[in-house]
Amino acid sequence: MTLGMLGFLAGGTQGGKGPSVSEDEDDILAVEEAKALEQQESADRKDTTLKPEDLAQRSQVREERAKELLTKHPESPRVHDAVAGIDYSAGRFEQGLERSGQAIALAEQKPDKKALVSALVNRGEKGYLAMGDYPKAYADAARALELAPKNPRAFALLKLTEGRVAAGHGGKPGPAAAGPSGQVAPSQAQTGESAGRQAQDREAQATAERLKAGALAREAAGKLGLGDSEAGRRLIDKAVGLDPENARILAARSRARLAGKDMRGALEGREGAGATLHGDTVRKERVE
Predict the structure, then answer these.
(1) pLDDT tens-digit profile of 148-165?
(2) In terms of DSSP H, where are the helices of 47-170?
(3) Residue 252: which pLDDT band, with cuts at 50, 70 and 90?
(4) 208-288 shares the fold of 21-168
(5) At how many degrees (to 10) do helices 247-259 and 263-278 cross?
(6) pLDDT of the residue at 8
(7) Which residues contact 152 (CB under 8 A, 6 or more apart)?
(8) pTM of whole model > 0.85?
(9) Which CATH superfamily is domain 208-288 in?
(10) CATH architecture group of domain 21-168
(11) How far apart are CA 89 and CA 80, in angstroms?
(12) Of the candidates 98, 142, 94, 135, the residue with the CA atom closest to the CA atom of residue 120
């Protein structure tokens, strides 16, 4: 009998329940389970055939399991980070931000640089950016890049938000040349740079509005699942205002109106969703 087998028999079983799992391996398994729950949450919220009450019930089951994972792994930044992803997919942004904050604090204490970078990028991307808080999303991206300069997600988040932050906080213009009249006029390079920044700003704005619309649609689904049809309709109307060509959000508005006994509005919503799906402005964005 080998030494490895002796070790397995001596300490690898507990009460006949099978081989023990190391703390690191247990963390990995918990993270993978949390990520699977996040994917299920996202998939359910894309499923237009799922009734609001069924969605709410499934989401609640996942939340209970998420709490169990956190109870079992209270000191793991990776588990806290992964569980926060479930909250973001479900539209529970305040709770997600709280759990992301815990993940960051735990990663700083250990320290665990890889876990810290992951938590910063996830909070910035799935939390602050989706909520339209560009400065905080930018700050998380910048800090993540300080720790991991080659991280592609952190770099993408930084580029996506820097234009909005500069526009909202009055970025300083570069030196300008004086014209014949003595007035300062921008150079061609500065004009091109300004145009590029404006294009980037518009792209970032459009992306942020789509993300915000998806977040509102998820929150609306939760309200409808709890029977609060009035709040659900208000939220989904805001989502449509931000992303009026998203067929899934239009279909969700139709279901919300149907829940409120607004048959005419529900029919109009279905016609709008159909026109978006079959017209020239087909959009691939979905309620994530």
Answers:
(1) 998 999 999 998 888 878
(2) 52-72, 77-90, 93-109, 113-122, 130-131, 134-147, 152-168
(3) confident
(4) yes
(5) 170
(6) 32
(7) none
(8) no
(9) Tetratricopeptide repeat domain (1.25.40.10)
(10) Alpha Horseshoe (1.25)
(11) 15
(12) 142
